[in-house]
Specification:
InterPro entries: D-2-hydroxyacid_DH, D-isomer_2_OHA_DH_cat_dom, D-isomer_DH_CS, D-isomer_DH_NAD-bd, NAD(P)-bd_dom_sf. GO terms for molecular function: NAD binding; oxidoreductase activity, acting on the CH-OH group of donors, NAD or NADP as acceptor. Keywords: NAD, Oxidoreductase. This is 2-hydroxyacid dehydrogenase. Mean pLDDT is 94; it is low at 43-48. The radius of gyration is 22 Å and the shape is elongated. The strands form 3 sheets. It has a 7-stranded parallel β-sheet with strand order 10-9-8-11-12-13-14, with helices on both faces. It has helices at residues 19-27, 59-65, 81-86, 105-110, 123-139, 141-150, 181-193, 216-222, 242-247, 265-274, 314-333, and strands spanning 8-13, 33-38, 48-49, 52-53, 71-74, 92-95, 114-116, 173-177, 196-200, 211-212, 225-228, 252-256, 277-282, 303-305. Strand 5 (71-74), helix 3 (81-86) and strand 6 (92-95) form a beta-alpha-beta unit. The protein contains 11 helices and 14 strands. By secondary structure, the protein is an alpha/beta fold. 32% of the residues lie in helices and 17% in strands.
Amino acid sequence: MTNGNSVRVVAAGDHFILPSLITEALGHQLPCEVDELTLGWPLAPFGPVAEVTEASDAEDELIDALAGAQVLVTQMGPVTERVLGACPDLRLVVVCRGGPVNVNLDAAKRHDVRVCYAPGRNAAATAEFTVGLMLAALRRIPQAHDLLARQGSWEGATYYTYEHSGLELEDLPVGLVGYGAVGSRVARVLCAFGARVMVFDPYVHGEIHGLRVASLDELLRRSRVITLHARLTAETQGLIGARELALLPPGSVVVNAARGPLLDEEALCDALASGHLSAAALDTYLREPLPPDSRLHALADRLVLTPHLGGASRAVAEKAARIAAEEVGRWARGEQLAHCLT
């Protein structure tokens, strides 16, 4: 905390969490000197940068900006051992995202730097996007749009035949793998559509929207659509592979707007190519950006593919900046931090 001294903050934003949003939010919390810095997106947005992940490659730029600063607010800034060692005045790092994956937490502890994050800032946006992906895949909306708007063809009208028409959510058995901040919102929306919602999450207890299912295998056997909402851990990596996809009824649909490695992409492609799955909708991938040689491109007529946009809404950016600024305010006032990991 500041003991009454002036606080110098570096707002290292980017083209989504604008530095100006951070500065504006800080202005509602405390008087402080703010230096704005705009970091570019990393060349490989979700790959490793030094010993942290999902960060930009702007270590030198960040070190220069942090000279004499006590606080860093950022989304993608690479807070590595090197950055922490070069910035002895730094005492607080607040990351504008659901987890500080761009921060070396062990190094932060050694340097006595508090690290906070912004949980839940994109839960509503991701839940809405997930339902949008599901509807698009079930009713083949992107394919029909492409035929008419881009190719000038009315051939999409064949989707108005029994053989080619899609599924509707009302009375449809939909299985949710995970019931956290996003999954619980998706469940509520699907219940409003009249879907028969089932949930598998061994870590969530208490009342849920939908029917709790005891095992993942049971969920898969009973679902026509599954949507993934689990956190990516060593336990959940590759959670849905060839064996699991084979348990789904023929013609099922898979939706993943959580994390790419939850799903075995090769097994998914095999299931789509064989016709066992009728469609899939993906916003996240094993490798990002999606490689040009990915098998998914050849299966585009059965896919809805978006480039990791689930958490991208203006409200998310504004909310993340506000949550981060509130943490800075608590730290400056000597109050207990709400979302601190070190």
